[in-house]
Amino acid sequence: MGMTTTKKINLSHLYRMTDSVGILEHSLMATPDLKEGYCVDDNARALRVALRLKDEKLIDTYLKFLVSAAGNNGFKNDLDQSFVWQTEEYGENFGRAMGALAETGKMGIRNDQKLTGMFLFDQNVKHITKSESLRSKAWLIYGLSIRSWCDPKLELELERYLKVKIS
């Protein structure tokens, strides 16, 4: 049996697309397109990648973006180039954010990252039944299942959600 070698992933585009606010939504080839701004679902995706990379700085950046996107009724989605939030909805972005926050609560490097992920998730659980997007529902089930590992009281919330939304 031979040795297996792992190829190192080139993350230069991820770092190029990320600034102090979060990951930009679009690029023109390899050049970040600032005029398109940022969105929650891309930052949620990036947070999940950063958790797997165990990149503390990236986790902080993307988590900070989700904290700033949290509103009274879930998450705002699009942040334009003037740093004005454009939408607040319960689409796929809501489910992706909740899934990423649940993962942060379980996989964050530092305790403050874990606590922030769990807190923000718990603050938004009350909105889960408002989401009608099938992808969002899938991400919410995923997030609830992960979050309930950290807090068994949320198993009841997961069970309730499955009865209401999936039946």
Short note summarizing the structure:
This protein is mostly helical and 167 residues long. The chain has seven helices and seven strands; from the N terminus they run αβββααββββαααα.
Structure, described:
The chain is mostly helical and 167 residues long. It has a single domain, classed as Glycosyltransferase (Alpha/alpha barrel). It is 56% helix and 9% strand. The chain has seven helices and seven strands; from the N terminus they run H-E-E-E-H-H-E-E-E-E-H-H-H-H. The chain has helices at residues 12-17, 40-53, 56-69, 92-107, 111-124, 134-150, 154-166, and strands spanning 27-28, 31-32, 38-39, 70-71, 74-76, 78-79, 88-89. The strands form three sheets. It has a three-stranded antiparallel beta sheet with strand order 4-5-7. A two-stranded antiparallel ribbon has the order 1-2. Strand 1 (27-28) and strand 2 form a beta hairpin. Helix 2 (40-53) runs antiparallel to helix 3 (56-69) and helix 3 (56-69) packs parallel to helix 5 (111-124). The longest helix has 17 residues, at 134-150. The N and C termini lie far apart (50 Å). The mean pLDDT is 89.
Question: Residue ranges: pLDDT <50 for 5 or more in a row?
Answer: none
Q: What's the total helix number?
A: 7
Identify the strand order in the major beta sheet: 4-5-7
Domain count:
1
β-sheet strand percentage: 5-15%
How is the quaternary structure best described? Answer: single chain
- Specify the CATH class: Mainly Alpha
Roughly how many Å is the radius of gyration?
A: 17 Å
Question: What would you say the CATH architecture is?
Answer: Alpha/alpha barrel
Distance between the termini: 50 Å
Largest sheet: 3 strands, antiparallel
Mean pLDDT equals: 89
Give me the count of strands: 7
* CATH topology type: Glycosyltransferase
Series of secondary-structure elements, N-terminal to C-terminal: HEEEHHEEEEHHHH
Question: What percent of the residues sit in helical stretches (DSSP H or I)?
Answer: 55-70%
